[in-house]
Amino acid sequence: MRRLWLVVAALGSVSAAHAADMPDLPVLRGGFTDGLSKTSHNWDGAYVGVNGGYTTNATDFSQSVVGLTNFIFRDSVLQQPTASWSLMNKTNTQSTNFGAFVGRNWQWYDAILGLEGTYSYFNNLATSTSGSNSLIITNPAGDNPPSGTTDNYNVTLTGTAAAKVKDMISLRGRVGWDGGDFMPYAFAGAAVGRMDVSRTVTSDVTLTQIVTTTGAGGATSTTSTTYAVPAQSQTQSQHRTNAFVVGWTAGLGVEYCIWEGLFARVEYEYVKFSPVMNTSVTLNNARVGLGYKF
């Protein structure tokens, strides 16, 4: 038995000496994680930031003066034929934008949901157009000329319109994905813009009456007389300053964590406003920004 204990003691001494000579491997201390775990950036929390970029504006003036022409031709036989005249075209313009944003993220594993408010100021985002159209309207509905008489209304419309988008606020919901230092996201929400909008139309209307008569023996004769129509020959204008216009917004973006809470972002935003005075405005915004998450 005494010999057995001596053998056990000798083996223990050799094992301890061998362990002391082994290198200090991280895996033996639990510090080796390569391929065993995934680091994830914490995007949860409130944040603020500033941004700037470029905006393209598409403004549809094709129906801008319809409200004015409907007023000029109200209660007349010309209201229906002129109700949908497309007098002017669409225009496009470009400008820079500057703004700020504030929001809050909530993170569940790799999924991120957020709510964000933005403000954008547009640098001279203004456009205008003009147009003219002439048409001969013969015996319009509701017109009852005498037998043998043809009424030709000679209508000429000349119009101008302008629109300027000053600034915009939006409230957007966001859905993102935690890609480590990167977070791609999509958003959609409501927008309210502030605009100056104006429109003017001038109408010039004359009536040419062609009368055909049949004499003895079946001979016919034709007479033509032109009259001014002052009731429908006039100019109407309308101007709204700082008009608030509602709309909707949607887009895509990506954020990159630079250092701790500091992050940069790049995004594209589409904005569609409801018509104001029959003028429709659409914006395409490209932005870069810098923010800080608390």
Automatic annotation (TrEMBL):
A GO CC annotation recorded here is: cell outer membrane
Q: Where in the cell is it found?
A: Cell outer membrane
Q: Where is the signal peptide?
A: 1-19
Could you tell me the superkingdom of the organism this chain comes from? Answer: Bacteria
Question: Which controlled-vocabulary keywords does the entry list?
Answer: Cell outer membrane, Membrane, Signal
Question: Which Gene3D superfamilies does the UniProt record give?
Answer: 2.40.160.20
Q: Where is the Outer membrane protein beta-barrel domain?
A: 7-294
Q: Does the keyword Signal apply?
A: yes
**Family that this chain belongs to:** Belongs to the Omp25/RopB family.
Protein name in the entry = Porin family protein
- Organism of this sequence: Bradyrhizobium rifense
